[in-house]
Amino acid sequence: MMRFRRPKAPSNFGTVVEQQRNAVRNAVAAQTPPVFRELWGDYKSFFSKAQHGKCGYCDNDVISNQDGDVEHYAPKSEVSILGSDETTWGTEAPNLAKVRGRRPQVLSSGGYWWLAYDWKNYLLGCASCNRKWKGSIFPIKEPPPRAVPPGEAITERALLLNPFAGAHPAKHLRFNDDGSVEPLRNSRRGLETIKTVGLNRPSLHLQRGLSVSDAYRAIQLIGEARLSGNVQREKEGLEDLVRRGDERRAFSGCVRAVAEQELGIPWRDIEAAAEAP
């Protein structure tokens, strides 16, 4: 996952969604199921630009291959969870994008309705992460006990990593050179994110593995150059690593996470070292 800067909402966004937001609020107050008008899709380009056309969860290219979705981070109309039994998390069919054996438990037919038209609840997601894996799943930290259905006044701590805010993905996910991913230091947020959006699906392994293995190789060369005192070779290795972690590239967030974890310094310091004369 990559950390992005959330785009600014257009000045008329509040006015455009106000009527529908009020309609949803009135329906909930009347204890009737709200009807959500799909207005958020009109703003897909804002999030695509901010995310360089990449999925906010898997960090793979989206717009170059598919339409992509404006995804609701907190689901608007239903809430589900995955239990601790790994056999219910589902697996990806070999050489296909189909998900088999995934059995989430529906907690509530009502979701985070008040966030349906909240700009801070949007991100660009690919169809696989959003539709085939995440759906209405939304893990939170308990206790306190989860509110079912959720209410506007509740206070919860989401465990699903967000590319725009909250805990930094590099502090919770570890990417291996074969393309697989695991929770960093047994991170709960890391685990919940991996299983919620299917970050360990085999279809990601090859593509992500190529980027990550190149990052590990660059880091190895940097280490060898330091040991031998070859300053020029070390700088070339840093420049290569920064190029691979360019935010416009697919899986650059994975490259940056590997670099920060292996070198023990923030990405901005890695960039500064590569740019130093």
Question: If you had to describe this structure to a student in words, what would you say it looks like?
Answer:
The protein is of the alpha+beta class and about 280 residues long. The protein has a domain at about 15-160. Helices cover about 40% and strands about 10% of the residues. It contains eight helices and ten strands. The strands form five sheets. It has a two-stranded antiparallel ribbon with strand order 1-6. A two-stranded antiparallel ribbon has the order 2-5. The longest helix has 27 residues, at about 200-230. The radius of gyration is 20 Å and the shape is globular. The two termini are about 30 Å apart. The model has no long low-confidence stretch (mean pLDDT about 95).
Return residue spans where pLDDT drops below 50 for at least 5 consecutive residues. Answer: none
Which strand order do you get reading across the main beta sheet? 1-6
Give the ordered list of helices and strands.
Answer: HHEEEEEEHEEEEHHHHH
Number of strands: 10
Question: Radius of gyration over alpha carbons?
Answer: 20 Å
The amount of helix comes to 25-40%
Average pLDDT reading? 96
- What structural class results from the helix and strand content? alpha+beta
Shape: globular
Query: Total helix count?
Result: 8
Distance between the termini: 31 Å
Query: What fraction of residues sit in β-strands?
Result: 5-15%
Question: Which sheet architecture does the biggest sheet show?
Answer: 2 strands, antiparallel
List the helices and strands and how they pair.
Elements lengths: L12 H17 L14 H7 L18 E4 L6 E3 L7 E4 L6 E4 L2 E4 L13 E4 L1 H8 L5 E2 L15 E2 L14 E3 L5 E3 L4 H10 L4 H27 L2 H14 L7 H12 L3 H9 L2
Antiparallel strand pairs: 1-6, 2-5, 3-4, 7-8, 9-10
